[in-house]
């Protein structure tokens, strides 16, 4: 019985805390990736430059700092134009979807994940992100309904109290 109660309170806590399975990235990793990109720019092969930019983009959109996330989104959008490979397109769109999710633009994030799934319909990472986005949208809707219902209840209660006092 205690285990069931514990799981119930844990699920309620998860609901309100907004926990998801998308990893976070620390600022020291971002700094390391930036250093790596700077070194690769000094005459390295294009393939190595691309790999370094992708690692930096990954680190930026997974960062806890909103300005890093925005920078990662800008990098990915700029590089998406020059992408010829469907695999690279899929990877960049996925990272863009993570960035938009982290920045709170859930509809844009869902659009990008759907485009990823058009390229690779069974890609588990994209399917998991899509589920996370949809869960977040549902949760926001439930919280919004709760706030609206509470507001209506308070207003209605105030009206009833005012009428009773007369």
TrEMBL record:
Transmembrane found in the keyword field: yes
Biological process (GO) annotations held by this record are: mitochondrial fission; peroxisome fission
Which coarse location class applies to the principal site listed for this UniProt protein? mitochondrion
- Pfam families, A to Z: Fis1_TPR_C (PF14853), Fis1_TPR_N (PF14852)
Question: According to its record, what are the GO cellular component terms?
Answer: mitochondrial outer membrane; peroxisomal membrane
One GO MF annotation is: molecular adaptor activity
Name the UniProt key words of this record, in alphabetical order. Membrane, Mitochondrion, Mitochondrion outer membrane, Peroxisome biogenesis, Transmembrane, Transmembrane helix
Tell me where the transmembrane regions lie.
141-164
Q: How does it sit in the membrane?
A: Single-pass membrane protein
Location relative to the cell: Mitochondrion outer membrane; Peroxisome membrane
Answer yes or no on keyword Transmembrane helix.
yes
- Family, as annotated: Belongs to the FIS1 family.
Purpose of the protein: Component of the peroxisomal and mitochondrial division machineries. Plays a role in promoting the fission of mitochondria and peroxisomes.
Spell out the PANTHER family in the cross-references.
MITOCHONDRIAL FISSION 1 PROTEIN (PTHR13247:SF0), TETRATRICOPEPTIDE REPEAT PROTEIN 11 TPR REPEAT PROTEIN 11 (PTHR13247)
Q: What is known of its domains?
A: The C-terminus is necessary for mitochondrial or peroxisomal targeting, while the N-terminus is necessary for mitochondrial or peroxisomal fission.
Q: What is this protein called in UniProt?
A: Mitochondrial fission 1 protein
Species the sequence originates in: Lactuca sativa (Garden lettuce)
């Amino acid at each position: 019985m205690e285990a069931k109660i514990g799981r119930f309170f844990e699920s309620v806590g998860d609901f309100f805390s907004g926990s998801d399975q998308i990893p976070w990235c620390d600022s020291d990793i971002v700094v390391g990736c930036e250093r790596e990109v700077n070194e690769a720019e000094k005459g390295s092969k294009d393939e190595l430059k691309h790999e370094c930019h992708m690692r930096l983009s990954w680190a930026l959109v997974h960062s806890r700092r909103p300005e890093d996330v925005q920078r990662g989104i800008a990098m990915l959008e700029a590089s998406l134009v020059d992408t010829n490979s469907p695999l690279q397109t899929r990877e960049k769109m996925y990272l863009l979807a993570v960035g938009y999710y982290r920045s709170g633009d859930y509809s844009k994030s869902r659009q990008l994940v759907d485009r990823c799934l058009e390229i690779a319909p069974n890609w588990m990472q994209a399917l998991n992100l899509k589920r996370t986005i949809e869960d977040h949208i549902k949760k926001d809707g439930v919280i919004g309904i709760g706030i609206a219902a509470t507001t209506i209840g308070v207003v209605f209660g105030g009206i009833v109290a005012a009428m009773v006092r007369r």
